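@channel anyone free to eyeball this complex?
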Amino acid sequence: MSKRDDLIDAAKTLLWEQGFEAMSPKKIMRLSGAGQGSLYHHFEGKQDLALAALAEVATEMRAVVDDVFSEDKAPMDRLSDYLLGSRQELNGCRLGRLSNEKTVYETNICTIIGDYFNYVSQHLHTTINDAKAAGDLPHHLDADAFSRSLQAVIQGGYILARGTRDAAFMNKAQEGAWAMVEALSRGH
Amino acid sequence: MSKRDDLIDAAKTLLWEQGFEAMSPKKIMRLSGAGQGSLYHHFEGKQDLALAALAEVATEMRAVVDDVFSEDKAPMDRLSDYLLGSRQELNGCRLGRLSNEKTVYETNICTIIGDYFNYVSQHLHTTINDAKAAGDLPHHLDADAFSRSLQAVIQGGYILARGTRDAAFMNKAQEGAWAMVEALSRGH
DNA sequence: GTCTATACGATGATAGAC
DNA sequence: GTCTATCATCGTATAGAC
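replying in thread with the prediction:
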């Protein structure tokens, strides 16, 4: 594996564990085992490296959600898999957790996050419509709003877990969301 | 107003707009008009100042939610006011937005955030039980999980809005959550 | 491609005059 | 209480040898 890959791997880890601002070139070098020369040979700077690392992260995460929302599964199973799936609560979402950082918000790093959010939302949207068609959810449901709500529960669950330093609150949020979906399904 | 108050006001603003790590003593000085001497006279350092500033922020925010959840209002009105209330979507929650920062998570600043989250959740919990008692929500509802879910929708809505740089997604998440609550209310 | 040496401003804090 | 030096260290990047 090349130094370039080592650098990207280190950046992926540090971005998840510490965020963008806290990820200094020095830390990247220590974790990757590469020297500063390699960093600035392969990338224009820290931001460019972060961009490359997060592009890979986004690709990995898309693959995961593609699996969660596989159309082989019944719509309601897709929803429960999405809502109840196990997550690293205290680390936060690998992309979403960066959205509050000033530099991230102001640069094209933010585009990677936004694109990923829209990608997941599209999956949710499709799944909700499939569930309607299958008679599992009421037709009057606004798929647009509903999909963003479910997505927000997950992103917010991470925030609750970290703010309280207690992973259980993410799980509570997940359970509550799934209970609401089930109630909608039964109640119509 | 004393320099101490000026410093705290500046910190409150910067913490909201930029976060903790991005709030440098230099920026604090410029915004507050105080010199470095004043900063280190009144506070032990940047972290101590942040702690004092965020304690004030938490007090202000508690007052706001106390109002939203006033027991003078019908339970369902409290819930709609909480869920649909107008927010500064692109700035994020003044406390929640800090939870992903490494230093915040590792220090007692995090306690302020967790305490606030629990405070809001307690209000939600009470309101949900009041709604049950009034016959507005089904008795089988898990108030614990439900309250954390609704709270997560708001916190997650901020993340969606910032990640996409589009305030509308917070509003979608809010609408979807309220629609679910209404459906639960009608459907039981 | 990779490394070490060097540069330079910013960060976070201290010392001491007023 | 407030201000202006001053300081050590870090963050970020460049230069140039190997």
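from a first look: Residues 2-4, 34-38, 41-42 of chain B lie near DNA strand D (CB under 10 Å from a C1').
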